[in-house]
Amino acid sequence: MKSAVCPGSFDPVTYGHLDIIERASSRFDQVIVAVLENRTKSSLFTVDQRIEMIRETTQGFGNVIVDSWYGLLSDYCTSNNIGTIVKGLRAVTDFDYELQMAQINYQAAKIETMFMATSPTHSFLSSSIVKELAHYGGDVSTMVPPVVLEALRVRLAGE
Ligand code: PNS
Questions:
Q1: pLDDT tens-digit readout, 120-140
Q2: What H or E segment, with its residue span, contains residue 89?
Q3: Which one of 65, 67, 143, 148 is most buried, by most CB atoms within 10 A?
Q4: Which CATH superfamily does the domain covering 3-157 fall into?
Q5: Class of residue 26 by CB neighbours under 10 A (exposed 0-12, middle 13-18, buried 19+)
Q6: What is the three-state SS of 27-46?
Q7: Domain boundaries defined on the chain
């Protein structure tokens, strides 16, 4: 069985992530969406909340499971016998960082990274932009699924 992992912080999951996850799910027998910590970012949602939102929005794909991991992505892949990472590339600005990560993960454990070009509809989209817009009352309804929209409303009402 060919499995791939779609890793990320998913804080929160956006239509851009879901596009990559769905397309990966049509190319692999199983896709594991792994919620990991990105130590350079502070998070709005707990890992459990992020997992729940991803589960709700990917259940229709049929072959996607959601998991979390605290530690190195390469260790996660090795422990779960996964040889492929799938990541979306939005623009050339993503490339330097993603290339470095791909090289680190290959050197650490021979894990291959495959890049998928983000759909142009989503190329400007990021979780950080969604959080910033939502914080100031901007409309993010075209950027995230309804379950995330509601979670943002509840979470930001408390601020
Ligand atoms: O959605 P993001 O924030 O771009 O995802 C980045 C993430 C979480 C995939 C990356 O930070 C990561 O792999 N973190 C786990 C620790 C790790 O393996 N770092 C790479 C080696 S330094």
A1: 999 999 999 999 999 999 999
A2: strand 84-89
A3: 148
A4: HUPs (3.40.50.620)
A5: exposed
A6: CCCEEEEEEECCCCCCCCCC
A7: 3-157
What separation in Å is there between the alpha carbon of 36 and the centre of ligand 1?
6
The DSSP output letter for 71 is S
d(CA 47, CA 68): 7
Locus of tokens 């998991």: 67
Closest alpha carbon to 115 in 39, 33, 24, 40: 24
Ligand 1 pocket test: pick from 38, 51, 100, 115 the residue with the most ligand atoms within 8 Å of its Cβ. Answer: 38
Residues belonging to the active site: 17, 41, 90, 127
Q: How many Å apart are CA 145 and CA 60, to the nearest integer? A: 13
Q: How far apart are CA 95 and CA 148, in angstroms?
A: 27
pTM given for the model: 0.97
Measured by CA distance, the residue closest to atom 2 of ligand 1 is: 8
Q: Name which of 21, 27, 38 is nearest 118 in CA terms.
A: 21
Residue with CA at minimum distance from ligand 1 atom 10: 38
What is the tens place of the pLDDT at every residue in 10-35? 999 999 999 999 999 999 999 999 99
